[in-house]
């Protein structure tokens, strides 16, 4: 490897790298957040116990079937193929010309949503039955139980898996270069195409990807610790407090 | 006397296994009733049927003159009038001690946060846990958790308190602190329905003892009668086994 070339490439092309990395981050952050919201909704709906009344029961069953079709389809096909199908398909079939960024975010969100739905479902299942029963026993309905008791615990538990998904998204947005999204991989390819220094150019991209994923790891660790709260607690109004005898020498 | 909850012909099956058969039973206002019997006799299921954590297969549960098993009845507004204490405590792991007692009041009873905190502190004081308001459930011992769970149920100011084997999951040295709290509560005129294996406790606090065997109420009566002078053969046998 020629270090001088690396430095030259960076100094000549840094705006492109930065824009590419920025685009990658933007798509993966928004995609992960939207995907997590989709996943939370889908996961929560899929864990609603089947209601007694027939009408509601049928509606829930139909929704569940639709959700599992969605999840299975998007987990079961490569994102690079979905990108092609959705971006070109939407133009051909519906005459919708999506702008590239919207398409990119849409594809990443819907993909993440499919994975997150299963992560959330696993998270809800892992909460002990007693937590649901205790909430129901004080009169909470399903939504109140979920919102006040179950989901806070689920979100804490699925945070590591969500971080995983975020990191996968940062790396996998690179496949969106097939529809021409100007993310980091696309930009690096242009740089390399100009200077024919493929190895050095992609080495720079490699380092940038790693910096982004590692930063995300550190930030999520911090959040986990924050959510866990302090290890210790302080007692309130403890009666037995030891007071030291007053030092009379303080008098002037 | 006015009965708070009246159960008529209640039955419960899991699949084709019948756990409760034709239970008739009621709890009067201010009464402390202990339900005893061997494991698998249906005591806990009866309690869980009363607050609909298990759906009864048949029969009626009459509360304030209404059958709450009617389809149209709102089970959430019924449940908030019953306080439930579980064998496994089931404190909300994501809330500290104070919030465990506050969240139900705010969300279900729609009390203001200040009022809810005041009520919570009042009952945490009753169970002697008011110094631990900041602690998370995982930082407490079993006995402390169960006392908080009792305070959580009391904070809802229910008509009846249901206790489902509240000391069965506790280390022996912690049983005492929970029973002490329950004895104090029994003295305040609170209506209590207690499923328990603590015979001495049942003898001491209850106004009435119900002995269950194989899904039916085999015998019920005053504690002196059940413990000292049982009529039924199976009651005698059970007491011989448990009291030694």
From TrEMBL, chain A:
Q: Name one GO molecular function term.
A: transmembrane transporter activity
Chief subcellular location equals membrane
ABC transmembrane type-1 domain location is 21-220
The alphabetical list of record keywords is: Amino-acid transport, Cell membrane, Membrane, Transmembrane, Transmembrane helix, Transport
Task: One GO cellular component term, please give it.
Answer: ATP-binding cassette (ABC) transporter complex
Q: Which GO terms describe its biological process?
A: amino acid transport
So where does this one cross the membrane?
20-46, 58-74, 86-108, 202-223
Q: Which InterPro entries match?
A: AA_ABC_transptr_permease_3TM, ArtM/GltK/GlnP/TcyL/YhdX-like, MetI-like, MetI-like_sf
Subcellular location(s) of the protein: Cell membrane
What is the membrane topology noted in the UniProt record heading this document?
A: Multi-pass membrane protein
NCBIfam families registered for this protein in UniProt = HEQRo_perm_3TM
The record's family statement is:
Belongs to the binding-protein-dependent transport system permease family. HisMQ subfamily.
What is the designated name of this protein? Amino acid ABC transporter membrane protein (PAAT family)
Q: Which source organism? A: Psychrobacillus insolitus
Automatic annotation (TrEMBL), chain B:
CDD domains in the cross-refs: ABC_HisP_GlnQ
Q: Where in the cell is it found?
A: Cell membrane
Q: How does it sit in the membrane?
A: Peripheral membrane protein
Alphabetic keyword roster: Amino-acid transport, ATP-binding, Cell membrane, Membrane, Nucleotide-binding, Transport
The record's similarity note reads: Belongs to the ABC transporter superfamily.
Identify the PANTHER family for this entry: AMINO ACID IMPORT ATP-BINDING PROTEIN (PTHR43166), GLUTAMATE_ASPARTATE IMPORT ATP-BINDING PROTEIN GLTL (PTHR43166:SF9)
- Protein's UniProt name: Amino acid ABC transporter ATP-binding protein (PAAT family)
Highest classification ranks of the organism: Bacteria, Bacillati, Bacillota, Bacilli, Bacillales
């Amino acid at each position: 490897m020629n270090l001088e070339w690396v430095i030259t490439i960076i100094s000549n092309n840094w705006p492109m790298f930065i824009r590419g990395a920025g685009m990658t981050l933007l798509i993966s952050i928004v995609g992960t957040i939207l995907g997590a919201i989709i996943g939370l909704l889908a996961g929560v709906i899929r864990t609603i116990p089947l209601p007694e009344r027939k009408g509601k029961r049928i509606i829930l069953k139909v929704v569940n079937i639709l959700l599992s079709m969605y999840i299975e389809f998007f987990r079961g096909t490569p994102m690079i193929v979905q990108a092609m199908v959705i971006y070109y398909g939407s133009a051909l079939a519906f005459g919708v010309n999506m702008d590239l960024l919207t398409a990119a975010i849409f594809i990443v969100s819907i993909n993440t949503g499919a994975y997150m739905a299963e992560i959330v479902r696993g998270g809800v299942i892992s909460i002990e039955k007693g937590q649901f029963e205790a909430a129901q026993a004080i009169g909470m309905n399903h939504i109140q139980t979920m919102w006040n008791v179950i989901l806070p615990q689920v979100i804490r538990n699925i945070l590591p898996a969500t971080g995983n998904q975020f990191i996968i998204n940062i790396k996998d947005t690179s496949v969106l270069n097939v529809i021409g999204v100007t993310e980091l991989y696309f930009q690096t390819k242009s740089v390399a195409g100009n200077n024919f220094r493929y190895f050095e150019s992609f080495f720079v991209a490699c380092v940038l990807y790693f910096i982004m994923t590692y930063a995300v790891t550190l930030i999520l660790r911090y959040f986990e610790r924050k959510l866990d709260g302090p290890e210790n607690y302080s007692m309130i109004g403890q009666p037995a407090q030891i007071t030291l005898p007053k030092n009379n020498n303080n008098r002037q | 006397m006015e009965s708070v909850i009246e159960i008529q012909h209640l039955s419960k099956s899991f699949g084709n296994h019948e756990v409760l058969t034709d239970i008739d039973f009621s709890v009067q206002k201010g009464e402390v009733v202990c339900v005893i019997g061997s494991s698998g006799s249906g005591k806990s299921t009866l309690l869980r049927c009363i607050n609909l954590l298990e759906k009864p297969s048949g029969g009626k549960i009459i509360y304030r003159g209404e059958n709450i098993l009617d389809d149209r009845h709102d089970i959430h507004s019924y449940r908030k009038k019953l306080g439930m204490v579980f064998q496994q405590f089931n404190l909300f792991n994501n809330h500290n001690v104070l919030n465990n007692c506050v969240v139900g009041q705010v969300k279900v009873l729609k009390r203001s946060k200040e009022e809810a905190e005041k009520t919570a502190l009042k009952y945490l004081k009753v169970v002697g846990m008011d110094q631990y308001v900041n602690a998370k459930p995982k930082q407490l011992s079993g006995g402390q958790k169960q006392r908080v769970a009792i305070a959580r149920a009391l904070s809802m100011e229910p008509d009846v308190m249901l206790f489902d084997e509240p000391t069965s999951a506790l280390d022996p040295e912690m049983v005492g602190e929970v029973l002490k709290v329950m004895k104090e509560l029994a003295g305040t005129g609170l209506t209590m329905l207690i499923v328990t294996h603590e015979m001495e406790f049942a003898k001491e606090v209850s106004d009435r003892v119900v002995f269950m065997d194989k899904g039916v109420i085999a015998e019920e009566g005053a504690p002196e009668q059940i413990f000292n002078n049982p009529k039924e053969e199976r009651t005698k046998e059970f007491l011989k086994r448990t009291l030694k």
